[in-house]
């Protein structure tokens, strides 16, 4: 699943590809907590094990790609 995160005052999006074994509902719950202000930082781990932190108050939008969709090209 691909996740795109827009950050306020940032020129680019954060784009992550998480493993297919990651629960979509859990990712949505983590994002909801960050957007509601329940947590100060949204932590996500991509398919290669890289951990990314985004300050919750800086998140402008989050886009979750449909399950099973893969862009054409290399990753």
Strand content: 25-35%
Largest beta sheet: what is the strand line-up? 2-1-5
The first-to-last residue Cα distance is: 13 Å
Shape descriptor reads: globular
Low-confidence stretches: none
- Number of helices, counting only DSSP H or I runs of 4 residues or more: 1
Helix content: 10-25%
Using only C-alpha atoms, the radius of gyration works out to 12 Å
Note the main sheet. Answer: 3 strands, antiparallel
Mean pLDDT: 89
The secondary-structure element order is EEHEEE
Topology:
Layout: E1 2-7, E2 14-17, H1 24-36, E3 41-45, E4 51-55, E5 59-64
Antiparallel strand pairs: 1-2, 1-5, 3-4
Characteristics:
two-stranded antiparallel sheet; 75 residues; alpha+beta; 17% helix; 1 helix
Q: Explain this structure to me?
A:
- There is one protein chain.
- The chain has 75 residues and is an alpha+beta fold.
- The protein is built from 1 helix and 5 strands.
- The chain has one helix spanning 24-36; strands at residues 2-7, 14-17, 41-45, 51-55, 59-64.
- A hairpin with a 6-residue loop joins strand 1 and strand 2.
- The longest helix has 13 residues, at 24-36.
- The mean pLDDT is 89.
